[in-house]
Amino acid sequence: MATSSLFKWRHFLPEIILLNVRWYCRYSLSYRDLEEMMQDRGVKVDHSTINRWLLKYAPELDKRIRRYLKPTNVSWKTDETYIKIKGKWKYLYRAVDSAGNTLDFMLSAKRDGKAAARFFRKVLKSQHTQTPRVITVDKNAAYPVAIDALKADETIKKETELRQSKYLNNVVEQDHRNIKRIVKPMMGFKSFNSARRTLSGIEAMNTIRKGQVKGIEQGSSVSQAKFIEALFGIAA
Q1: Out of 30, 75, 115, 160, which could bridge 108 as a Cys pair, Cβ 3.0 to 4.6 Å?
Q2: Which long-range contacts (CB under 8 A, 24 or more apart) does 150-158 make?
Q3: How do residues 7-36 score in pLDDT, each as one tens digit?
């Protein structure tokens, strides 16, 4: 989608829209927090409008950064964490490599072999990932089922090792903390679709923050902001 049409009919500058999307996905803020912060800067915008911005542009951010991600290594760490949607717990699958770089993520209503296999297929389709040498998971019985299915249809090599160890998966378990910190002020999601879209933006910002984008310094908020504006074609 072209940038010009992406922001068509919006009553606010693209820079303002992206600023709110970036802040919401990067920091532990509510929509009302952002509404107040914008008012302090002389911009009057309702929190419901910010919510609509987020649902539209967060997935677009995730999609646009993919081609700029640095290659990850062949040692995968996979785990799932809980996300509350309409008062019920759903599952966010996440995978990182041994250096802590994000491979991919997937929100799922179920936590079984089919869901795990679907997640691994999604990871393998990412441009910045490589076929794994070893996949470290916890003791969840769904993972061996998923790996057997992937080996049977030759999605992954038969030599790929599945290593089930709770204590060797600290890297990805620590990485869950970023998601938990940011979703806490949200008090749960109202729908699966809104959760999926919002989480895509949070994961994208976390990936950028960790320095996985080519040419962007880790922890440099200024270079990150300029990159995102350039990504959407609005940089000065």
Answers
A1: 115
A2: 150/117, 150/120, 150/121, 155/120, 155/121, 155/124, 156/120, 156/124, 156/131, 156/132, 157/131
A3: 877 789 999 999 999 999 999 999 999 999
| pLDDT tens per residue, range 74-120 | 999 999 999 999 999 999 999 999 999 999 999 999 999 999 999 99
Which domains occur in the chain, in start order?
A: 3-68+191-231 (no CATH), 75-178 (3.30.420.10)
Whether the predicted pLDDT of 3 surpasses 80: no
Q: Check if the beta carbon of residue 182 is closer than 8 Å to that of residue 202.
A: yes
115 residue type, one letter: A
DSSP letter string over 159-200? TPEEEE-GGG-HHHHHHHHHHHHHHGGGTSBS-HHHHHHHHH
For the record, the structure tokens of 59 come out as: 């997935």
pTM, full prediction: 0.91
CA separation for the pair 58, 23 (Å, rounded): 11
| 3-state SS assignment for residue 120 | helix
Chain segment 197-233, per-residue pLDDT in tens? 999 999 999 999 999 999 887 878 888 999 999 999 8
